[in-house]
Specification:
heterotrimer, A mainly alpha (334), B alpha/beta (502), C mainly alpha (325), A: 334 residues, mainly alpha, ABC transporter involved in vitamin B12 uptake, BtuC, two-stranded antiparallel sheet, 72% helix, C: 325 residues, two-stranded antiparallel ribbon, 13 helices, 2 strands
């Protein structure tokens, strides 16, 4: 007790960093990614082509931008299913602005602004009114895209200014696209935020135990508000990239993308229940999904069959560790 | 001849031997108290008897014959039911359904016979003197009434063995007396009762027999009439523990905290007091008196509708825990697991959580600084853990409490509020916490201690505020501070024939 | 259990009546019984699926694969009908329900035995089921002229003034009303969602109950699958895309709490009817159908806000003056 002269020494860590890294989800996923890469390069002669690979990145760059923000949100114990609809609304707003003669800078501001506003809208329902984010964002998912339909009907907006195409169709250098650059910048930014800042620590604490986090003096509602703003903002940015790449806007743009984003996040090792996960994991998951999609595309597999692979991959990657530990448990207890 | 016995039962979990060849016999018409510190194996025993866990070794016998409970249904079929501390029933279902869920009476077509169910429920409720209707939703009842529903459920399965796990934890004195009467009724019906409690006065009042476990092993059993409290404690702990509280010479400093007129529409009103540096102020009261509610308002978790809070003389508005911490007021909550420690995060991150602005630089984490801070306070509190980056959920209750306290001490507070700091902690760690509190006060911290244990309140506090029904009933110190006055003010009992106060 | 006036459902019923009144001012023919019956018939698949989803949500799960399940079973029975035109409709119905149940069982097993969170499981099976439609049909459609008359006529066959499609919905409602109120399975569904921890203590197998919930949801999706392809006389990969969200919306609007344990058959049915009325009323009052999505989104937000306020726990009443304890 207090009067003991001996100070008990507790080591900081039991396992070395190398040990911890090897046994992690990210390593497993990386192995899967490498395996898929190898299989693909044997499956199709067109795979190991720099320009093809570059085109393939468009499969995942926009989704990944949102996935990074979504990862933080899910780690904190919430979810945002309205992201694809925010893309639709932001894209519609930009298209509308173009009809009124807006130039590229204005379009960027509008795209990001609409994203932020939608994020704030979600945030108010979840943090101020205290409603479960899954139903709120199922509601706003319909509402945001619904507004796009009201504005645009079954038409489309075209006529984007030439400068605008830089976002989604531009190249930085050789095969490296502008979107890749954004991907890297956003990945690094969110990685630093989640793993190296007080804010990121708060995200983990809130995801593990929001009550204890509140009782520890963390501003839980403010953190969640900011997280929704971030998913909104990233959706707005993804809208800019996607619209710029397609050169047009329809209300059905990015339909179904929210589920692909969630798949990417969960595949990346983020627990859907909150409290754990990492950005490197999501990066690898983005590559995995991109490789699978690209590889299957080269084999002329139709999109809808591709998604069988993605669905199976999602379930398989989560089921496998559990099956292994169940088998081990059974072996131990005869 | 015991109704149920556990014979050399062993139960292990990865890394932990929860029960090691333990023995337990329950006799019809008698109350057996199961006594032991936290971690002694009491709750595992309950789970083995109710079929939630299956023992790895040993035999359970019913009426002498060996049985095997593969699941809770088997145990229920054998006549064993349990009433737990927190009611494990269904808030959204009505009383009758709660009594009969899992074994509701059926009509000819296999459907549930609701009319019969309500009728039978009414009979059971009348048997135990429960006044509420069978159609009442469970969430509309108070905890004592919920216990009655649990007991009615036990009767409905014609239980032969009733296990009561800390049933009086949340009951008022009157409700506790009613529970004792109920136990007598059950005894007279020939049921065997397993009574788990750490309150010695209860054990000696109600139990006929005792069984002591320590660290998962059987220590002794026998008749209560053959034993006394000290021997029981020694058997529980393995050493004589005097319930002596650390001697203190309070060196009171300036007034650090002044609370005036704190009120909330439904929870408390007119709360005001002063607190000086170096002082330990006890808050006593019955469960539900409003003490924790007030503390949480003081700490900024909830918002009072009225009230002024002055710290070191200056008025401060506290609207969130972050505000409170910034002003030097910290709160160690009663519910360690849910409110105190962030299970899932490692120990060192728990300790540094409110202090990140000091260990970090411009919002960026600095791990070396964090480990340094965590190490310092872990050592100060004599934390027992294999490493600082272990998940805090792996620690025992006492060590988790140390982490929570360490977390707050690291913020260098002025006022520390401890809400039931030694609840659910074994005797050895209790003493450590008490010594530590005394040390904190000696160092100039102001300590507020909310406690429902009279010896602790009297032994540790310089002054005691008694709350009743959301208001301050009395402020006691010195010679006035006796168990009788505490209970009197807490329960609103008059000392002599005179008009009863509100 | 049976509260005399369930508040949530009554308000929802009132909202529907209000909606009907508003529409009637513009177009009185809308509230004619024959039209109301038509609207009900149109909403029947949604009602059927909403009941299945209700059971799943009550047990604290969610099933995003219902629409894909519907589409897959629909395609399968359509193809069976093309291959075996003499197979009676009754057999087709059985096959549809059994197949749907089997698909639901896949979800159920993954949730029960592998403890994978339901949202993840059904996200995965959603795409797997949908993709499988392409695999078995090679992307081709099954058109009405390929289906037998018996196959397509069944949902439209009128009995006692209502088409069989409506009767299917009505029957499902009755079965579920009885099941949820009066069978041990139904009560344990509420128990599992309300307090899974306590459910274990009362001997209810939480995982198994959730498994059964998914099987039920899948079976209903299978049933709706046949009814859908038969009624619209076409089967292809994309039928009912996005429908799963309408189904969840119907439940949410109907007061089924996403947290589990709270909700009612009446609520799910009324939620579905609300959406059905909106959908059918829009063209009639000259509001473009493009407003439908935004309206149902707003309805969800309003319903959730309202239900959350209503269910909010008041602070503990401690002060004697504040109320009777």
């Amino acid at each position: 007790m207090m009067s003991e002269p001996v100070i008990r020494h507790i080591p900081d860590r039991l396992n070395s960093r190398a040990h911890r890294t090897v046994r992690s989800w990210e390593t497993l996923l990386l192995a899967v990614a490498v395996a898929i890469f190898v299989v693909n390069s044997f499956a199709s002669p067109y795979f190991l082509n720099a320009w093809n690979l570059s085109d393939a990145t468009f499969n995942f760059t926009e989704k990944a931008m949102i996935a990074f923000a979504m990862a933080l949100l899910i780690i904190a114990g919430e979810i945002d299913l309205s992201v694809a609809s925010i893309i639709a609304l932001a894209s519609t707003a930009m298209g509308l602005a173009v009809q009124y003669g807006a130039g590229t800078p204005e379009l960027v501001v509008i795209g990001l602004g609409v994203g932020l506003l939608c994020g704030a809208f979600n945030a108010v329902f979840v943090t101020v009114l205290g409603l479960p984010s899954i139903v709120v964002t199922i509601g706003t998912m319909s509402l945001f895209r619904g507004i796009s339909y009201i504005i645009l009907g079954d038409g489309a907006f075209n006529g984007y200014p030439p400068g605008f195409a830089w976002f989604g169709q531009g190249y930085i250098y050789w095969v490296f696209t502008v979107e890749m650059l954004f991907f890297v910048i956003i990945a690094v930014t969110f990685g630093v935020i989640l793993h190296k800042t007080n804010f990121g620590r708060a995200v983990y604490a809130i995801g593990n135990n929001p009550t204890a986090a509140l009782f520890s003096g963390l501003r839980v509602q403010r953190v969640k508000f900011i997280l929704f703003l971030m998913t909104g903002l990233m959706s707005g940015f993804a809208a800019i990239c996607l619209t710029s790449r397609l050169g047009s806007t329809r209300p059905s743009i990015a339909m179904g993308m929210e589920l692909e984003v969630v798949t990417m996040v969960v595949l990346g090792g983020v627990s859907i229940l909150g409290g754990s996960g990492s950005i490197p994991g999501v990066v690898i998951a983005a590559f995995v999904m991109g490789l699978v999609t690209f590889g299957l595309g080269l084999l002329n597999v139709p999109g809808i069959v591709m998604s069988i692979f993605i669905g199976a991959l999602l379930i398989g990657v989560i089921a496998l560790p559990r099956l292994v530990s169940m088998a081990a448990h059974r072996r131990r207890h005869g | 001849m015991p109704v149920v016995s556990m014979d050399a039962i062993t139960k292990t979990f990865p890394g932990v031997v929860a029960l090691d060849r333990v023995r337990l016999d329950l006799y019809p018409g008698q109350v057996t108290a199961l006594v032991g510190e936290n971690g002694a194996g009491k709750s595992t025993t309950v789970k083995v008897l109710t079929g939630i866990y299956q023992p790895d070794d040993g035999t359970i016998r019913v009426d002498g014959a060996p049985v095997r409970f593969a699941n809770p249904n088997d145990a229920a079929a054998a006549g064993i039911t349990a009433i737990h501390q927190e009611t494990v029933l269904f808030d959204e279902l009505c009383v009758a359904e709660n009594i009969f869920i899992g074994h509701a009476p059926r009509t000819r077509f296999g459907l549930i016979d609701t009319a019969e169910m309500h009728r039978a429920a009414r009979v059971l409720l009348d048997e135990i003197g429960a006044p509420f209707a069978t159609t009442t939703l469970l969430r509309e009842l108070g905890i004592a009434s919920k216990h009655l529903v649990a007991i009615a459920r036990a009767l409905s399965v014609d239980a032969r063995v009733v296990i009561m796990d800390e049933p009086t934890a949340a009951l008022s004195h009157k409700e506790i007396e009613e529970l004792y009467d109920l136990v007598e009724t059950l005894k007279s019906q020939g049921k065997a009762i397993l009574f788990i409690s750490h309150k010695f006065d209860e054990i000696f009042r109600i139990a006929d027999r005792f069984t002591v476990f320590r660290d998962g092993a059987f220590v002794a059993d026998g008749l209560i009439s053959d034993i006394d409290a000290n021997t029981l404690v020694r058997m529980m702990v393995g050493r004589a523990v005097d319930q002596i509280y650390p001697p203190r010479t309070p060196d009171l400093g300036d007034t650090v905290l002044q609370v005036v007129g704190y009120a909330h529409p439904t929870e408390f009103a007119d709360i005001g007091f002063t607190l000086r540096r170096g002082e330990i102020l006890g808050f006593y009261g019955l469960i539900g008196a409003g003490r924790s509610e007030f503390m949480q308002a003081l700490f900024g978790i909830t918002r009072p509708t009225k009230g002024v809070c002055k710290i070191d003389g200056a008025i401060r508005i506290i609207r969130s825990p972050a505000d409170a911490v910034a002003n030097g007021i910290v709160y160690v909550p009663e519910d360690r697991g849910k409110q105190g420690a962030v299970i899932g995060l490692p120990i060192f991150q728990n300790i540094t959580l409110p202090s990140l602005h000091r260990t970090s630089h411009a919002g960026f984490l600095r791990m070396a600084e964090e480990f340094k801070l965590a190490r310092e306070y872990a050592q100060r509190l004599d934390l027992r853990a294999a490493s600082l980056d272990l998940d805090v959920g792996n620690l025992s209750g006492g060590n988790q409490q140390k982490v929570v306290i360490a977390k707050w001490l690291a913020t260098q507070p002025r006022v520390i509020i401890l809400d039931e700091p030694t609840k659910g902690i074994d005797i050895g760690s209790k003493a450590a916490v008490h010594e530590f509190m005394a040390e904190l006060a000696a160092q100039g911290l102001a300590v507020i201690m909310v406690s429902s244990e009279i010896p602790e309140v009297i032994g540790m506090s310089d002054r005691v505020i008694v709350m009743r029904d959301g208001r301050i009933a009395a402020e006691l110190s010195g010679d006035d501070l006796t168990p009788e006055t505490l209970v009197r003010h807490a329960a609103g009992i008059a000392a002599a024939p005179q008009l009863q106060g509100a | 259990m049976l509260r005399l006036i369930p508040l949530r459902e009554t308000i929802l019923f009132g909202a529907i009546c209000l909606l009907l009144t508003l529409v009637a001012t513009r177009f009185p023919g809308f509230v004619a019984p024959s039209n109301l019956a038509r609207v009900f018939n149109d909403t029947a698949p949604l009602i059927i699926l909403a009941l299945g989803q209700m059971v799943v949500i009550l047990t604290r799960c969610i099933d995003l694969s219902v629409a894909a399940n519907l589409a897959l079973t629909g395609m399968v029975v359509a193809m069976i009908n093309v291959a075996l035109p003499d197979l009676p409709v009754a057999a087709i119905l059985v096959i549809a329900v059994v197949l749907g149940a089997a698909l639901g069982a896949i979800n159920g097993i993954l949730v029960w035995k592998l403890s994978i969170p339901p949202i993840v499981v059904t996200l995965g099976t959603m795409t797997i089921f949908r993709g499988s439609i392409f695999l078995i049909s090679d992307g081709t459609w099954v058109n009405s002229h390929e289906m037998t008359d018996a196959f397509t006529a069944f949902p439209r066959a009128v009995a006692l003034g209502l088409p069989m499609l409506s009767w299917a919905a009505i029957l499902t409602v009755i079965v579920f009303a009885v099941m949820m109120a009066r069978t041990p399975l139904g009560r344990s569904i509420f128990a599992v969602g309300g307090n899974p921890h306590a459910a274990v203590y009362t001997g209810i197998n939480v995982g198994k109950t959730q498994f059964l919930a998914f099987v039920i949801s899948g079976a209903l999706a299978g049933l709706a699958g046949y009814l859908w392809v038969a009624r619209y006389a076409v089967a292809y990969v994309d039928i009912a895309t996005g429908f799963e969200l309408e189904v969840v919306a119907a439940c949410v609007i109907g007061g089924i709490s996403i947290a589990g344990g709270v909700g009612s058959v009446a609520g799910a049915v009324l939620g579905a009817i609300f959406l059905g009325v909106v959908k059918n009323a829009l063209p009639v009052v000259d509001i473009s159908p493009f407003w439908q999505l935004a309206i149902s989104g707003s309805a969800i937000l309003i319903a959730v806000s309202f239900n959350a306020r209503a269910g909010r726990k008041k602070g503990r009443i401690i002060l004697k003056s504040a109320g009777v304890r």
